[in-house]
Amino acid sequence: MKPKVLVARAVFPETLELLRAHFHVVSNQDDHIWTPEELRSRAAGMQGVFTTGSERIDAAILDACPELRICANMAVGFNNFDVPAMTAKGVLATNTPDVLTETTADFGFALMMATARRMAESEHFLRAGHWDRWRFDMFAGTEVHGSTLGIIGMGRIGQGIAKRAAHGFGMRVIYHNRSRLSADLESACKATYVSKEELLSTADHVMLVVPYSAESHHTIGAKELGSMKPSATLVNIARGGIVDDAALAQALASGQLAAAGLDVFEGEPKVHPSLLKLKNVVLTPHIASATIKTRMAMAQLAADNLIAYLTQGKAITPLNPQVIKS
Fold first, then answer.
1. Residues 205 and 158 in one domain
2. Looking at 283, 300, 315, which one is the last position of a domain?
3. 236 shares a domain with 143
4. Are residues 259 and 125 in the same domain?
5. Are 252 and 273 in the same domain?
6. Which residue has the higher pLDDT, 214 or 253?
7. Distance CA 43, CA 26 (A)
């Protein structure tokens, strides 16, 4: 009998076809957002679950689904997984690193450009029919080329952004990370390691690419925003909760900070109402990896993890490889 796999959100038809070649698949192509209770009910009796960032896998669902062996996340982030609880229950957790690095780095740089150059604000102005003349200071923004970019979180995506900035735009790149990069990587990125305090006070643009954890919650709050230049911009393509959105809204409204670009939010898909009222913030709905090619690669890798583990006892990108029996 084929193992049973639950696909918790709508995915590409090609992904379902691949999974159905190996498993009995129950899918959610209607893309309903299930409550935790509904997810537990549908995952009961399943050996595998194909998840996205919106499905929380915690002790409650693990207790309710004793047959579960693997949860494969179609995302590089995995803060929707309680990995210690999964490990304790012998359930493998996997994610999709690498395949979205370049696309996400592209988007992060694009969001920084749109934020610095006030693209969204000026487009709304034009669409509303307000443009009736040219003026010397109309939507004058912040310089990008030759300015200083500070990156917090220097993993693969952060390194990709650094290379775009240094090699393509002649930017000075400084970074802060839990651990310093090797000399070779620093050279390739043309990046200089600094303290978080120096980065915030020095950078013209601050880019957040740090994974979410209890330790990184509100990495940027009122204190940190207060130490940034009033002319600076802040871009978050990491995870909601890295930034205190309420404090950011206040800093933007008061002129303490020039502008922000946000692809992720606390409590998303809800957005702090104060942010929605501001003109000097560019808001996008968590789409940094959203190209067809990249999303298909993410779905493929999540499916491949399910297939490898449930048919061969192996995994491609495990988060807790200690649960794999040798």
1. yes
2. 283
3. yes
4. yes
5. yes
6. 253
7. 9
Q: Which pair of tokens denotes residue 134? A: 């040219």
pLDDT single digits (tens) 279-300: 999 999 999 999 999 999 999 9
Q: Max CA-CA distance within the chain?
A: 72
State the DSSP string of 192-252.
EE--HHHHHHH-SEEEE-PPP-TTTTTSB-HHHHHTS-TT-EEEE-S-TTSB-HHHHHHHH
- For the chain, the average pLDDT equals 97
Same domain, yes or no, for 90 and 115?
Answer: no
Chain segment 115-147, per-residue pLDDT in tens: 999 999 999 999 999 999 999 999 999 999 999
Task: Report yes or no: 42 and 34 within 8 Å, Cβ to Cβ.
Answer: yes
Distance between CA atoms of residues 22 and 307, nearest Å? 7
Residues 261 and 127 in one domain: yes
Which are the catalytic amino acids?
239, 268, 286
Helix 156-163 and helix 101-116: axis angle, to 10°? Answer: 50
Residue-wise pLDDT for 8-56, tens only, equals 999 999 999 999 999 999 999 999 999 999 999 999 999 999 999 899 9
The tokens of 116 are what? Answer: 């610095």
The whole domain housing 262 covers 101-283
- Gap between the Cα atoms of 30 and 32, Å rounded: 6
What does pTM read for this prediction? 0.93
**Domain co-membership, 197 together with 316:** no
Q: What are phi and psi of 108, to 5 degrees?
A: -60, -40
| CATH number for the domain harbouring residue 146 | 3.40.50.720
How many structural domains does the chain have? 2
Q: Do 185 and 95 fall into the same domain?
A: no
Nearest Cα to Cα of residue 74 among 31, 32, 15: 15
pLDDT confidence band for 326 (50 / 70 / 90): low
